[in-house]
Amino acid sequence: MRLAYRERQGIVTEVIVETFRTLAIFGALMTAVPLLVLAERRISAGIQNRLGPNRVGPQGLLQPLADVVKLLFKEEIVPEKADKVLYRMGPLLAFAPAAFAFAAIPVGKDLQIADMSIGVLFVVTVTSLSVYGVSFGGWASNNKFSLLGGLRSGAQIISYESAMGLALISIIMSSGSVGLSTIVEAQKDILHWNVFWQPLAFVIFVTAAFAENNRLPFDLPECESELVGGYHTEYSSMKFAMYFLGEYLAMVVMSALIVTLFLGGWNPGFPLPDGILWTVVSVLAFSTKMALVLFVYIWVRWTLPRFRYDQLMRLGWKGLIPLAMANIVLTGAITALRN
Amino acid sequence: MDARNPETRPDERRGLPKWLFSIYLPAIFKGLYSTFLHLVKAKGHKTFTVRYPEERVTTRKGYRGEHRLKVDELGREKCVACFMCQTVCPAACIRIVAEEAPWPDRDKRPKIFEIDMLRCIYCGMCEEVCPCDAIELTQKFNVVSTTRAEKIYTKEKLLSNYWVLHK
User: Fold this and answer.
1) Which residue among A58, A172, A280, B111 is least enclosed by CB atoms within 10 Å?
2) Any chain A CB within 8 A of the CB of B45?
3) Residue B135, H or E segment
4) Per-residue confidence (pLDDT) for residue B14, from 0 to 100
5) A46–B46: do the CB atoms touch at under 8 Å?
6) Is the Cβ of B42 closer than 8 Å to some Cβ of chain A?
7) Can you tell me the ipTM of this complex?
8) Which of A49, A51, A300 sits opposite B45 (nearest CB)?
9) CA pair distance B5, B19, nearest whole angstrom
């Protein structure tokens, strides 16, 4: 099929625009990760009455860069008895899905890499893939502590993924769509934010998100005190850095998902008129909310102790899943009554 | 204290329904409030970090740092090489070789007075046992050496420490 000159030109422009949009969003995401690592260190220091890294650059802003240089120059050690293929695949698998999932999240008004009609399902499916990285790493290291860490990660994701999915169902029911951009548009002003209409789903989702990100109080796969680092005990140099990066990237993606689903996405709390300026405002609103959620992530980590393994399972299966199911029934009943 | 027993249950739990505590959330919010106070340095919390090159830690009175040998008003070392410190030292880090004193008021003086600072445990027993008040532990603690040999302090080094503040 031959296209007219104008049509061809249109396609070329579109490709260029799309490429830049993707690069911009991905670049912003990759910039957020080192900042988050620094924020984690500074905030934890503040909570523990310390100062944290503040010497490299203004307020320690260049500290992550220095860390990366250090990690790059460190010796890479592969255990002799390790499963070499899986061992190399682990860090990649932990990192890639998190970056991949961000594609479906609307970061601003009309600003999204891919507007999928099944956005929620896509994000949940892809983020849950990152557990393979952790499990493979744990298995391939050929180290009993790593294996335990990987095992725990698998068990944890099975228990908490279901609670998370069930919490999502009530959101899908109330907004009537599986597309993330539709869900955001349904929360056009602050009164329509899902966090006020679905508080129970919010609590369940956030708890499950913490567990899925292996964050305290659910960081059993890592467990410095009993598993000496868990699944990444045997990893060094850039492979370790990839796990680290993947963990924080997953945190960013999960907080973006929480903002999108519950806190109105890019809506600053009032309906936005059209225009490029308002797109900027929406992106700012989105990043502010995301920063707040990430702060809570860090804040909770440095407040709560770790769950014991059986407590974790009890909370997941006996607490969150029945609650989420009850919430679905409740949502259904209210929706039926309102109609 | 048994938290399940209503008699001995902490006050904050009294009169409140039990399920409130089994959902963790009140305790979590309480903990978050507490850490937030630390973060914003409210309610008397403060940062304890010492910004090292600009700020230095100060030692308390009675801190046991590096030793010094004292000198009397004529500039002679007070030590009479009685071997009390060498005998009492639990780490066996003091080595004294005595010689005839050239002065009329005492019989001996140390020819060699060495302390192996790598062995020393800074217990201060040498100071306690010294009959002439000749050896003392100073406040000096931030000492750097690049070789092991440097860590064996000679009499001259210990005497030069006399000018380091004591107490």
Assistant:
1) A58
2) yes
3) strand B135-137
4) 64
5) no
6) no
7) 0.78
8) A49
9) 15
